[in-house]
């Protein structure tokens, strides 16, 4: 079975074609600057063939047509006909309280995702565009499935997901902590438990997805009990351009002083804050270069970031009553040894020890343990693979369709996979 995985953004569409017999990527690519005059389409196969060109893609349907053309291209293609694609899997950021599991796309599911757009306007809308584009290009006969970033976090208890605001806002608007990056946290937690030769259900684990967008999850008995992102991906610790948690009065104070609208303030917090707001750089490679050159603001940005990460880890250790494993993943987590070392240095009090040589070597897709044999807690680097999780869920849903009853056939519990 070949599954096409789609991750649609407001002006982009990333894809991977995965052969589920081997669980290996066959081809992947990206449609960039959709809706703009000068778009970019890139495509790469597992055996190294590449295609890259500047094109105009007025919408996601045209972008998806570029994808299907590339997949069947005589020179750079990997399939002869589109009928070789058995199913399509989509990543959707916000499932709210409606979707706690992965689902088969139908009209009710589309309406449900659409109803959640106010909770994730930058994500759910474009992701719906991707689903509709696939329907137009592939038709209704090819099954499509949706995997939600929020579903892995749906096991949080009310004491973790509720905010201390009037309860009526939860009732009326469903304002609560949902969490994001759930597909990544789910993959790395299960994969790390596998590498440790222990059941995930027997571990207290903290997974740190650190990238331009970042979140941490506390996982006890195989279930998330808390996570840093909240109603939106803005919550938690500072990121590339996002502020993370702050005193709510700062928001109203700045708005009053600067005469800003809610939209303008949201733009500041989401696009102009975080590391960018402190030192002028959002890419950690630029921050690191500036830090090496002695830029005091870059030094401060990194000190703030690692301090905030360490604080969340410490609070989650308390919430779980101990820690059996700490995991770093995603762009920075997998590739920035200095960040991992700086965070773990805060944990020396509890006996966490990092092997400096192993830590420095663990980049560019390598994964393994970076802690010393006598460390009180093993520290692991795991390369995340959200696309594989989406493909696995999609495969299982499609296979269950053959046997499930009508009322059961749209939903698959990720815990069963």
Order of SSEs: EEEEEHEEHHEHHHEEEHHHHHEHHHEEHE
Low-confidence stretches: 411-417
- What would CATH call the class of the largest domain? Alpha Beta
Overall shape: globular
**Over the alpha carbons, how many angstroms does the gyration radius reach?**
22 Å
Helix content bin: 25-40%
Q: According to CATH, what is the topology of the largest domain?
A: Nucleotidyltransferase, domain 5
Task: Enumerate the strands of the largest sheet in spatial order, edge to edge or round the barrel.
Answer: 5-4-3-2-1-6-8-7-15
The overall number of domains is 2
Oligomer state of the chains in this structure: single chain
Number of helices in the DSSP assignment: 15
Q: Sheet with the most strands?
A: 9 strands, mixed
Q: Structural class of the secondary structure composition?
A: alpha+beta
Query: Do you know the CATH architecture of the largest domain?
Result: 2-Layer Sandwich
- Give the total of beta strands: 15
Within CATH, the superfamily of the largest domain carries the name ATPase, nucleotide binding domain
Beta-strand percent range: 15-25%
Distance between the amino and carboxyl termini: 17 Å
Mean pLDDT score: 92
């Amino acid at each position: 079975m070949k599954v096409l995985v789609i991750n649609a953004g407001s002006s982009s569409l990333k894809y991977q074609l995965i052969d589920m017999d081997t669980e290996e990527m066959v081809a992947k690519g990206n449609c960039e600057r959709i809706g703009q005059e000068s778009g970019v389409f890139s495509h790469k196969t597992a055996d190294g063939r590449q295609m890259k060109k500047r094109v105009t893609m007025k919408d996601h349907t045209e972008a998806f047509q570029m994808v299907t053309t590339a997949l069947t291209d005589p020179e750079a293609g990997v399939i002869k006909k589109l009928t070789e694609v058995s199913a399509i899997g989509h990543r959707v950021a916000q499932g709210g309280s409606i979707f706690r599991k992965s689902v088969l796309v139908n009209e009710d599911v589309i309406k449900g995702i659409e109803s959640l757009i106010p909770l994730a306007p930058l994500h759910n809308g474009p992701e719906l565009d991707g689903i509709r584009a696939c329907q137009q290009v592939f038709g209704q006969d090819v099954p499509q499935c949706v995997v939600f970033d929020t579903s892995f976090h749906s096991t949080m208890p009310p004491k973790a997901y509720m905010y201390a605001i009037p309860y009526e806002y939860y009732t009326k608007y469903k304002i609560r902590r949902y969490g994001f990056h759930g597909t990544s946290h789910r993959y790395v937690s299960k994969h790390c438990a596998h590498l440790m030769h222990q059941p995930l259900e027997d571990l207290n684990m903290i997974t740190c997805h650190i990238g331009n967008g970042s979140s941490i999850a506390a996982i006890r008995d195989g279930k998330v009990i808390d996570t840093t992102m909240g109603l939106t991906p803005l919550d938690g610790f500072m990121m590339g351009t996002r502020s993370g948690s702050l005193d709510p009065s700062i928001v109203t104070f700045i708005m009053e002083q600067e005469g800003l609208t809610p939209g303008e303030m949201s733009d500041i917090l989401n696009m102009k804050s975080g590391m960018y707001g402190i030192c002028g750089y959002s890419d950690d490679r630029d921050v690191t270069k500036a830090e090496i050159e002695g830029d005091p603001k870059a030094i401060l940005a990194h000190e703030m970031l690692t301090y905030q990460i360490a604080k969340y880890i410490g609070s989650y250790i308390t919430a779980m009553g101990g820690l059996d494993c700490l995991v770093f993943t995603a762009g920075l987590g997998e590739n920035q040894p200095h960040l991992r070392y700086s965070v773990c240095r805060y944990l020396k009090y509890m006996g966490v020890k990092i092997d400096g040589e192993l830590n420095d070597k663990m980049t560019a897709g390598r994964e393994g343990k970076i802690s010393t044999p006598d460390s009180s807690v093993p520290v692991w680097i795991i390369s995340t693979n959200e696309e594989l999780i989406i493909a696995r869920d999609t495969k299982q849903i499609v296979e269950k369709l053959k046997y499930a009853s009508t009322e059961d056939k749209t939903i698959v519990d990720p815990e069963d996979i």
